[in-house]
Write a sequence for this structure.
């Protein structure tokens, strides 16, 4: 069997025709662009945007928020900006956010190289797919030790997306992976700080720079990932070769999860379950939430005092959902929401318990009415969402995030990359 | 005891007055600049230089080879360029090349901020000293696992040098270290490729960008190095707090080793020993070299066929030194040298053996003359070199590397930073 570097380099330049994978990719591009446009006013986004504008340089690729700068810098800024709200997609095969690490690299290089929408979408799909596969190859231990797969696996996906768009040959692509291996980084201990979205930007920037230097003739380790003292062995990688099985024929990316609630992903199964409730909040006496034990240390703030804390509270978000507060709207997670008396009263009737028979993607909710009747609700985020249902949900989310949602979708579906880039750069 | 991040942030802005440390720093700046000027025509240097010039942007900091670009890019290019020949200094406390990771960051920021030579030298010294100390804190396991301390420990040193020159306060400096922690990278598996000098450039660039983002208000983990899932715990760090003992009062940097031979550092103790030989090559019947066992797998190519292989050959470099070939000149390591019949004949009289009683820094040479008499020579690279002896050797080396050596030394000693920068930028 060829080493991972060669498998990935071949895959990067192979055919990309799977219609479902491409359809999901288009939706993810819409979702990503909406997150980026909504994120551009966040402090971390403004700060990185200002840095790139200040440094200036050749006008090669467009920034969220406007302005054109050298491609690696655009990748950094747009990666950071699109992850600023933490509202972008997640893949649970390796636990990472594929779109924010890869799409900024693919878009910056597509614009710089004058590629069209089809080439951008194919490169983007190669990039996100390979980031998930590298992430599986690195394994759960890599993540548990403290590496942010969005940034680490993401850097390799971004490199392959850029390599495809730049038309590197196989040897150059392997060199690019080697350069990415010595530059890739990103720690989970940045969570809760601006360092988290910055990690996504770093992945994207690494991809653009590694591919470009390899094209210029820079040499590197040809076993940058898997060799002795390569990225995997040094970064607690499992070297799980099943990560590459079927690559090119089957696609892992389409099972990516978009976020439809502007809060911690650990709350989403519960919120989706509650969306099926037929009970009015006024008649609920007690709400029992059962979830995977892991989440109790992640998003179970019992009495959140701020909008930010509300994003990590089963009890308050359950009350919000039952009361018809839009958990998909960023503005719902305000300090005032956390303090609203009717929500606090309902919140105090919520009881959260762990159930280790549930997966991390499942939740069960039992509503007990004042008369003693119960309604049992269940949701599994892993259950495949029909493509049209997913499209509707993403479209609604995008519209809530930006007034440009329909224009973005139109440009993607009409294959008009220049129009799409123009919308990204809206001030 | 305060966490390492706070100790380092305090140290970064503390007094820097130790005359010996500053004297060694000035010599190291000369040595580094000469390596950079000599390295600018190497492929890896030209390639990175071209990238920075192509991207352009505000003219903030000067490149080896000429041109001014944004400070982070100048740091990347100059770090890579000055390590291209692998002829720069090494510190064996942690095994890293301090100058190439830190001085490019300090110089780029000094130029961008309009600092003077004294401020540059103080920041440079803070940077190299803290890189060695962070390297000791990370420990030998970090290095043995595969991390290139030049790049990893170097990134933190570069960050502190930049933080001092930018006038960050203590909190901002801690944030900058946190950002460096999530961006620092660099693998030893790049050795033998252009990725090795690139690693030095990455360290310098990380330092400039981390300090600048922290100044702009970017937040990060305040325990980026030492905290749960911080850089140390995730990167096989030993957390050896002795690394920070006496920091600010005693200086580890002055024991840095400059390279006076343009070949593998493992050969240097033997070459220094041979410099004391009173025997002419014509009368030598046999040469016995005794060295630490570790070096036998590093630089013991018995019959080198090329100039590059000669850099890793005890036998040929011993023959070169005895025959008066200048092992300090890069041009001596040519294919023709490896093939010279008189050198090959002498080389074949050399016998290399391991002696585990020797340290990695020591070598013993026994010359047996045709009449049977012997001359025993010994050198310990760890034995302190009187400052004036070191200055003379560095001056000679710099003159062999660049015609600008005397002008560089003059600018450093006269405290003229603008003149020094002008020389760096010579085409």
């Amino acid at each position: 069997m060829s080493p991972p570097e060669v498998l990935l380099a071949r895959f990067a330049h192979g055919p990309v025709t799977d219609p479902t994978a491409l359809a999901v990719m288009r939706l993810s591009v819409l979702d990503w662009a909406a997150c980026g446009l909504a994120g551009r006013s966040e402090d971390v986004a403004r700060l990185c945007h200002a840095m790139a504008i200040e440094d200036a340089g050749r006008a090669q690729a467009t920034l969220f928020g406007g302005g054109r700068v050298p491609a690696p810098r655009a990748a950094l800024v747009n990666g950071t900006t699109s992850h600023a709200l933490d509202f972008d997609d997640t893949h649970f095969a390796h636990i990472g956010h594929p779109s924010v690490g890869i799409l900024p690299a693919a878009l910056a290089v597509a614009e710089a190289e004058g590629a069209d929408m089809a080439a951008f979408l194919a490169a983007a799909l190669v990039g996100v797919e390979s980031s998930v596969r590298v992430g599986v190859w690195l394994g759960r231990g890599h993540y548990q030790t403290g590496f942010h797969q969005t940034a680490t696996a993401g850097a390799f996906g971004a490199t392959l997306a850029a390599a495809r768009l730049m038309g590197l040959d196989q040897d150059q692509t392997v060199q690019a992976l080697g350069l990415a291996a010595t530059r890739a980084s990103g720690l989970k201990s940045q969570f809760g700080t601006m360092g988290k979205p910055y990690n996504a930007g770093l992945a994207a920037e690494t991809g653009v720079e590694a591919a470009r230097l390899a094209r210029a003739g820079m040499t590197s380790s040809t076993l940058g990932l898997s060799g002795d003292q390569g990225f995997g062995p040094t970064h607690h990688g499992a070297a799980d070769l099943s990560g590459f099985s079927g690559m090119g024929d089957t696609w892992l990316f389409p099972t990516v999860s978009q976020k439809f609630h502007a809060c911690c992903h650990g709350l989403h199964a519960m919120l989706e379950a509650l969306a099926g409730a037929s009970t009015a909040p006024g008649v609920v006496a007690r709400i029992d939430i059962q979830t995977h034990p892991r989440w109790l240390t992640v998003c179970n703030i019992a009495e959140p005092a701020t909008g930010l804390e509300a994003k990590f509270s089963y009890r308050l978000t359950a009350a919000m959902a039952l009361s018809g507060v839009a958990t998909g709207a960023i503005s719902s997670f305000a300090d005032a929401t956390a303090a609203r008396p009717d929500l606090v009263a309902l919140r105090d009737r919520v009881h959260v318990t762990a159930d280790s028979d549930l997966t991390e993607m499942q939740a069960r909710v039992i509503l007990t009415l004042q008369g003693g009747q119960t309604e049992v609700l269940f949701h599994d985020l892993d259950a495949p969402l029909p493509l049209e249902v997913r499209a509707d949900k993403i479209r609604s989310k995008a519209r809530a995030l930006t007034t440009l949602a329909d224009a973005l979708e139109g440009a993607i579906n009409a294959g008009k990359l220049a129009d799409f880039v123009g919308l990204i750069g809206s001030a």
